[in-house]
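Methyltransferase type 11 structure dump, as promised
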Amino acid sequence: MADTNRYGPLAARVYHLDKPIGRSFGDIEYYAERLAECPGPVLEPAVGNGRVLIPLLERGLDVRGVDTSAEMLAHCREACATRGLSAPLERQGFEDFSSALAFAAIIVPAGSFQLITDPGRARAVLRRFRAALRPGGRLILDLEPLSALTAPPGAARHWRDGDELLTLTEQRVETDPVRQTTCSQLRYELWREGMLVATEIDLFALRFWGILEFELALREAGFEAVEIAVDYRRGAAPSAQAGMFTFEAR
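C-alpha cells r here:
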C-alpha cells in the first residue's frame, strides 16, 4: 500500500536532484527581501532538503526547520555541513511541531501548506502558527491557484546521477472539485546498468484554496494585515494567469 506525501529515499533523492539547494522560482529572492530586517528566529516547516533555508542562512538569517521526512532532513543536514552552516533541524510535522522559542516569522514556500488536505486540520495548523509567533510576528506562505486543481499530471521525467538513472512517472488517481483536492500516484525507479534495482510508489495529495477562502481562514486563526503577492510581485493584481500566490499576515 502506498503512503501519502511520504518523501521516502527515492522521492527525496529525486527532489534533491530536481530542486537542488538554491534553485529559485523567484521565491528565494522574495523571502530574502521580506525577511531582510527580521531579527529571527525564523521557522520553516516542511523544510525539505533546505533549498530555501540554506540560501537564507547564507544571507545571515537565523532560520531553523522541521520536516516529517528523515531522508529529506538528511539531505538538508549534509548540504549545511558541506557549506559550513549550522541550523537546528528536527523531525516534526505541521501538526506536532513544538518549540520553546517564539518566532519572528514562519515561512512555508512552494505550496507545501497544501500537503494538508483536510481543511479543518489546515485551520488548526494556522492557529498553531499564530500561537508560535511573537507579537507582531509574520506568517508568509505560498499557495498555488485554485485553477491548478484541474491541471494535468506531469509528464514522465528522468535524472542522471553518476552511473545511475532515476525516473518518475505520475498518474492522477483522483480529482475532487468539491473537496478541492487531487491525489496522484508517483512511481520512482532507480536504474543501474539497464537494470531496475529499486522502486518506490507514493501517493501525493494536495488541497487547493481560493484566495478569499484562505484570507478568511487566516483571519479566523487570529491573523490580520493580510497582504497577497502574485508570482512574487507585491502590489500585482491577481489574475487567471498567476502561478503562485504568496500570503503574508501578522
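The chain has a mean pLDDT of 95.
lmk if u need the other ones
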